[in-house]
Specification:
Blueprint lengths: L1 H17 L4 H15 L2 E7 L4 H10 L5 H7 E7 L14 H7 L9 E5 L5 E4 L14 H14 L4 H11 L4
Parallel strand pairs: 1-2
Antiparallel strand pairs: 1-3, 3-4
Helix pairs in contact: 6-7
């Protein structure tokens, strides 16, 4: 009986540790941090199966642009739209929030930039209503930069570095 009780307790503890933080909690924490640091919030919806999501995560952390993004934004990765086998990786409530921001049918990655009052400043959609996702073409990167310029302090060297990091090389 002791073994069974231990296994039950261990299983419950393990499940609790692997459970993802609810998306609403992630956003609330980001809002608190953004208010304190006077920054905007870049929400990036992603999934484990999404190669473009992984690419964008890597780009946001690239040494040439990392300082710019950290100075201007609280970055909040939210896992959504996971496959059935990886639902445990999803932040609870993420698909609802993705839908609230208009990204449910857009595909991933999908980003939204909000201020610390939770007002939407911009999102992944270009002027034609298409999701930029992870911008890669020169045209997509140009639109991405315009969205960043409208929501942050951006220098000419920031533009140059973001262009270099995000533009897909053939």
């Amino acid at each position: 009986m002791k073994t069974f009780s231990f296994l039950l307790l261990f299983t419950a503890f393990s499940i609790h540790l692997s459970a993802q933080q609810p998306a609403t909690e992630l956003l609330n924490d980001a809002i608190i941090q953004a208010k304190k640091e006077n920054k905007n919030i870049l929400i990036k919806f992603e999934a484990s199966w999404c190669g473009w999501c992984k690419r964008m995560t890597k780009q946001l952390k690239d040494e040439r642009v990392k300082e710019y993004f950290e100075k201007n934004y609280v970055i909040v990765p939210i896992v959504a739209m996971e496959s059935a086998k990886n639902k445990h990786l999803e932040n609870p409530g993420s698909n609802d929030i993705l839908g609230d921001y208009g990204g449910a049918k857009a595909g991933l990655p999908f980003f939204v930039i909000i201020d610390y009052n939770a007002v939407v400043l911009t999102n992944s959609f270009n002027d034609f209503g298409q999701n930029l996702g992870c911008p890669a073409s020169p045209e997509e990167v140009e639109v991405f930069i315009k969205k960043l310029e409208a929501t942050s302090d951006m220098s000419a060297s920031d533009v140059e570095n973001i262009t270099a990091v995000f533009t897909l090389k053939n």
